Amino acid sequence: MGPTASGKTELAIALHEALGAEIVSVDSALVYRGMDIGTAKPSAEEQKRAPHRLINIRDPADPYSAADFCRDARREMAQISGQGKTPLLVGGTMLYFKALLDGLSPMPASDPAVRAAIEAEAEDRGWPAMHRLLAEVDAETAASLHPNHSHRIARALEVYRLSGRPISEWRTGAGEGLRDDYRWVQLALAPTDRQVLHERIAARFERMLEEGLIDEVRELYTRGNLNPDLPSIRAVGYRQVWGYLAGDFSYDEMRQKGVAATRQLAKRQLTWLRGWPDLIWLTIQDKDQDKESVPKRFEEILKKALNSIAPATI
Q1: 188 in helix, strand or coil?
Q2: How large is the average pLDDT for residues 84-94?
Q3: Could you say which of 121, 209, 274, 283 is the most buried, measured as most Cβ atoms within 10 Å of its Cβ?
Q4: Same domain flag for 143 and 289
Q5: What is the pLDDT of residues 152-207, one digit of tens each?
Q6: Structural domain tally of the chain?
Q7: 122: helix, coil or strand?
Q8: Could you tell me the residue range of the domain that residue 93 belongs to?
Q9: 199 with 274, same domain?
Q10: What is the pTM of this model?
Q11: Among candidates 79, 85, 91, which has minimal Cα distance to 25?
């Protein structure tokens, strides 16, 4: 696990090559086909070196949920284990990790009338006001959402109004998780200096633009069956470029908003991780780590983790 731009993919590939572990992606954006640059999806060469399961499995018009992930990840993990290998789950979608470990409780089904009432209220008051309303009844969920994340704010309010219980309680309330079915070693990767992460984020977003992110989003924009309320288009980077293509702001504003949104995502991911139980932190001491020694060093770290030895620094 780890914040965006922390180097998870590179180190996962190193673990695959060193230990033969099979990678299962835990990322809510990598599941979508045609969304490669903005998601920092492993390249064709990287996937050839280390195949990643659960990427490129959905069209961007078809939303993918935590429940979908749990079903698919269970299947992949059972297949990997059945082959005598170790599943290596890699990604930054913390809700997916939590759902897989602890399960998802059945929530009330969506009610069109309640949802319509919430959306009408939001049209009148604005989504930041709805976010504040959510914070009054479910501070935990509100803290994990951006004030303009309309779809998730609406769903959280809908669940509360239908059941009288916050969606955070439903998510932690039980369910069939896999925590007791496997022996888990939970590793979190992050730079020691927050400024290093911010520099990585800015450099990576600039590189995405140079590699053709705008053209990639333009292909989605011109399809005609996608909109900014879909989970795929709400992904960081895509939402900002979509707004630029729609004429909502300039190129420079899009760049600034893209970097800022990515930094906010990383902050939310780190907030999740700071409260995560039984976590071993792997701290990167500088932004130019020695890539040649990564496989050996991580093999040692994993062996130490399996023997319950204290957190390591790489």
Answers
A1: strand
A2: 95
A3: 209
A4: no
A5: 899 999 998 888 888 887 766 445 789 889 989 898 988 778 898 999 999 999 99
A6: 2
A7: helix
A8: 8-104+175-306
A9: yes
A10: 0.77
A11: 91
